[in-house]
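Page 47, continued from p. 46.
Same chain as before, 191 aa.
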Amino acid sequence: MRDRCANTFSEPRFGVPNLNRSDCARNALFRQCARWLCVALLILVCSSCVSWKQKMAILDSESQDLVEQVRVATESGRQEQAAELLKQAVASNPNNAAVRQQLSEFLIANGYSEEAIQQLQKTTVLAPDDPRPYIDLSYLLYEKKQYTDALKNLELGLTLDPTNIRALILKGELEELAGLNSSAVETYHRV
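Result:
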């Protein structure tokens, strides 16, 4: 009985000269080396992911420490220090949506609506599945009389949280302003 490789790659069958058992063995060795190389690359990629996650955890813990300092500063009436600490927290980890949300809430509470709008817009990009920044942004835009943008953000927020009472009330008000009284009544009934 002939070797399978010799039968498969024989010259009469494919017209390929000089393909014999040693070539088949070399190809098998190459495939085995390629498999090990893939495994080694996978391990390397996974180890770099773990170190990245550890780095992000450290950044998050640093940001959370700063946020705790903000809470203490706010409770003791040091608003300027609290604002600076929150800005530091955002600067140390600009991709942390939770810290940006807290900064925007602080800015809203202290009357800095323009800065809060900017932070909330960045937060919606970082956390597109969180309805809070959309709804908070809608309220700020409503106060600025940017009703169309407010309604767009509100719709996104209500898509994520269709039973949010604050959002439903604001939607009803916006529909009333637009003259859509029947829609406003339906929205208020959902509350």
